[in-house]
Design brief:
261 residues, alpha/beta, three-stranded antiparallel β-sheet
């Protein structure tokens, strides 16, 4: 586990009860007490927690993610995908993030990157999102400028959908957008269950220089109700090593870069 992963893990432990002791970090992450204290100091300097004697407490409900996201966010495949996505994001980028558990994992990894959390007079990263849970995750990171689209909250995905989202997205550009999906097929392209989500996600992809679908391999070959606009809507697919050689070749044949995490 590298330092960024460890800091993220500390925040997740903090999210479970709202407070954490150095001894808890030592036992659960298998690190020394010196390392645990150093990590708490680093997170406190980023205003992500408040130090106490022997530990720390959370200072925001930003960690109180919906249970659905807490449960799935740290699946090994999703975490590896999120780390690969983060590697594509240089400091100073404008990043689009739609909703979903994999996009939420991407937000977590970006939010714990030391280079993006360094004090700076200007934002080290700008994130544009239509997911209220992702906005809540990032709002306490002072070095991240968080832009939220308008719209009506979709109760299932915590995404803002509808024409108000379009008003914001049509007036901005992004360097890279990470799009979560319910299904991804080399012929049909990315798909989701809800047509409102599909409309916003499609526009986010089109407003970005690079549109990257983040999806674990279980979603490859599946199709959901609403398309995002065919396979040409995306430039890149990041998935896990469960993708088969034939599946990978089918995407590459259509000019889509495949990154296996």
């Amino acid at each position: 586990m590298n330092r960024a992963e460890r800091l993220n893990a500390v925040l997740d432990l903090l999210a479970e009860t709202g407070q954490i002791e150095v001894e808890d970090i030592v036992a659960k992450l298998d690190v020394s007490a010196v390392t645990a204290r150093r990590d708490l100091v680093a997170l406190a300097s980023q205003q992500l927690l408040t130090r106490t004697r022997g530990g720390a407490v959370g200072q925001s409900v930003a960690y109180d993610l919906p249970i659905r996201y807490k449960r799935e966010q740290h699946a090994p495949e999703k975490l590896r995908i999120a780390q690969a996505a983060s590697a594509l994001v240089p400091r100073g980028s404008v990043v689009g993030l739609c909703g979903g558990t994999t996009s939420t994992a991407v937000a977590s990894v970006l939010g714990s990157r030391p280079d993006l959390m360094e004090p700076s007079p200007h934002p080290n990263l700008t994130v544009v999102t239509n997911a209220i849970n992702i906005a809540a995750q990032l709002v306490m990171r002072p070095q991240v400028k968080t832009v939220v689209t308008g719209g009506v909250v979709h109760a299932r995905s915590y995404e803002l959908v509808g024409p108000y989202s379009d008003v914001v997205l049509e007036r901005i550009t992004m360097d890279i957008a990470f799009i979560g999906v319910n299904g991804i097929d080399p012929v049909v392209g990315p798909t989701v269950h809800d047509e409102g989500e599909a409309s916003v996600n499609s526009l986010m992809a089109r407003r970005a220089t690079r549109a990257v679908v983040v999806a674990d391999s279980s979603k490859i070959g599946r199709t959901a109700f609403a398309t995002l606009g065919g396979p040409t809507i995306m430039t890149t697919l990041i998935t896990d090593d469960g993708i088969t050689a034939a599946q990978r070749a089918a995407f590459v044949e259509r000019g889509i870069e495949v990154i296996v995490a």
